[in-house]
Amino acid sequence: MKFKYIAPLGCLAFATIFASCEKKQTEVKSNGAVPAKQAEAPALNIAYVELEALESQYQFFIETKSKLEARSKKYDQELNRLGQSLQKAGADFQQKIQQGKFTTQAEAEAAQKKLMNQQAQLEQKQMKYAQELAEEQAKFNEALQDSLSNFLNDYNKSHKYSMILSKAGGNILVADKSLDITADVISGLNQRYKKSSK
């Protein structure tokens, strides 16, 4: 029964909006003021670049990402090795305590202090490596952004796009493939990278 009132309410709301718009138009005309000519919007010439394709085809991205991953793997291996060494030293320490192999309290305290220093060194290395990788990642991101921006600024001098968008994930839901300049951009970026790396 409630559904019967929805359609008339919708029509009433539409009629009210339409009437208020019509009233404003008649008020403008009755004042004698000439409506200003609407400025025509300039034609937009838009293009887009697929960022996922840049990640898989831009040599600078591929090489730098590979170097970062190799460094990260090296750090992980070293930290794992140091962590295993620390675990073994901790187990040995516990075993010596349980078996009463420390002859004096001072000897046990010295072994415990050594173990704690080893743990502190491991934690310092973890922090140092994490910071180094974060700094390298930030430099890489900045260099990538600069490279792309500089190239697109030069590229756009001859192509005169009003806007060049990035397409990544789902930020552009539907786009005409004729607006896709990704292949052209990747080719140009790779040519620039080859010249700069010589």
From TrEMBL:
Name residues in a coiled coil: 51-139
PROSITE patterns noted in UniProt: PROKAR_LIPOPROTEIN (PS51257)
The question of whether Lipoprotein is a record keyword is answered with yes
One biological process term from GO is: protein stabilization
Which PANTHER family has this protein been placed in? CHAPERONE PROTEIN SKP (PTHR35089:SF1)
Please give the InterPro entries that the UniProt record associates with this protein. Answer: Chaperone_Skp (IPR005632), Skp_dom_sf (IPR024930)
Record's protein name: Lipoprotein
